[in-house]
Amino acid sequence: MEHEAGQHPRIPAADHHRDVNGGWLRPAVFGAVDGLVSNFALMTGVVGGAASNGTVILTGLAGLAAGACSMAAGEYTSVASQSELVQAEIEAERLELSRNPHGELAELAQVYISRGVEPELAHEVARQLSRDPELALEVHAREELGIDPNDLPSPLVAASSSFLCFALGALLPLLPYLLGATSLLPALLLAALGLFACGAVVARVTARSWWFSGTRQLVLGGAAAAVTYLLGWLIGGHVG
Predict the structure, then answer these.
(1) 3-state secondary structure 41-86
(2) Cα separation, 117 vs 33, whole angstroms
(3) Lowest-confidence range among 101-105, 206-210, 212-216, 227-231?
(4) What is the torsion angle, in degrees rounded to the nearest 10, for the CA atoms of residue 45, residue 196, residue 176 and residue 229?
(5) Is 196 within 8 Å of 12 (Cβ atoms)?
(6) Helix, strand, coil tally for the chain in percent (to 5)
(7) Mean pLDDT, rounded, of the chain
(8) Which of 154, 161, 168, 212 has the fewest CB atoms within 10 Å, counting from its CB?
(9) Residues 185, 191, 194, 196: is their CA dihedral positive or negative?
(10) Cα separation of 107 and 139, whole Å?
(11) How does DSSP classify residue 103?
């Protein structure tokens, strides 16, 4: 698109920043890590109790299905409840704007004054922003509630992301057994690689280095598996 001489194209502020408020990234990351750690730990606990390969596979499949459904249901409920609360606050703000527009205008001007804007300019900015009711509502929601009404996370996106990523993570340690492995070693190696990779991927959207994040996730996941293996070994002998 061409622009008039001396003018620059308007670039939305979000175009050069990563999306940190979306409804898919957090449940996807936590789903994959949780699926891998929880199912691998569950399987190692069963192996520690001297269970048969068939039992290990059944346990892994049950852990995958139950965990994925539980994560999806939890994410949906959590995000939906949060969105409903936000919508209620937005509607309360909309009602207040219609009942007391002058008071809300003064309140918005005071927000800018508290940030260092000269009072006369702050009142003029607030007045101009308040001419459009929908724009005024959006500005008040951002300034007073700290939310963007146009960028609320989707419960369905969060739930589906969590379900799929948990299932993929949980499948990783189970895969060697499904392919015919008869010992924990292949699952252990694959799970270790997966844990490190998950941590490294998380580092791509944070300020941490990939090796630190990967190593941290490997240590935490390994510790969880070691604890459950020990419990399985201690309890398995008495149950058997």
Answers:
(1) HHHHHHHHCCCCHHHHHHHHHHHHHHHHHHHHHHHHHHHHHHHHHH
(2) 46
(3) 206-210
(4) -10
(5) no
(6) 80, 0, 20
(7) 85
(8) 212
(9) negative
(10) 12
(11) H
